[in-house]
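Here is the promised in-class demo. Please do not try to memorize the tokens; focus on the logic of going from shape to residues.
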């Protein structure tokens, strides 16, 4: 049978189904690596977002409850950030969440600095591409204590 273009219609269709399957099998691992790697990077930035918010809220708490004679301890700020009575960051299941605080200066220029660390365990990128596993994500916030 001949078509309008002068070629055999059966001859052009022979073997193309197998070629598409082979091409798909070649590109599939790359596509999966891109998708899962993107998810892994997104999770890392999510952890950075959480630690940044935790340090900011911890510094805000310390600045609010610091008075002339008393300041919240690192343990009190850590409890506020981590526990359900406060911000409940333990609920996010952050690995190795550590909150620390320090104070510098005296009133009226007293400054509180709160640092929050959490570990990011790479699912795909650490195993296949050699990213440091776990990677420590750190955020630090400094605020003036005004009372």
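The designed amino acids, position by position:
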């Amino acid at each position: 049978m001949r078509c309008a273009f002068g070629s055999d219609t059966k001859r052009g269709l022979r073997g193309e189904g197998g070629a598409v399957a082979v091409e798909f099998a070649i590109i599939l691992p790359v596509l999966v690596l891109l998708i899962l790697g993107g998810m892994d990077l997104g999770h890392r930035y999510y952890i950075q977002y959480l630690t940044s918010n935790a340090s900011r809220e911890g510094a805000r708490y310390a600045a609010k409850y610091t008075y002339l004679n008393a300041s919240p301890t690192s343990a009190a700020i850590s409890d506020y950030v981590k526990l359900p009575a406060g911000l409940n960051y333990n609920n996010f299941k952050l690995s190795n969440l550590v909150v620390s605080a320090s104070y510098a200066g005296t009133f009226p220029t007293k400054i509180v600095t709160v640092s929050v660390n959490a570990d990011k365990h790479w699912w795909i990128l650490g195993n296949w591409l050699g990213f440091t596993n776990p990677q420590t994500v750190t955020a630090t916030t400094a605020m003036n204590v005004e009372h």
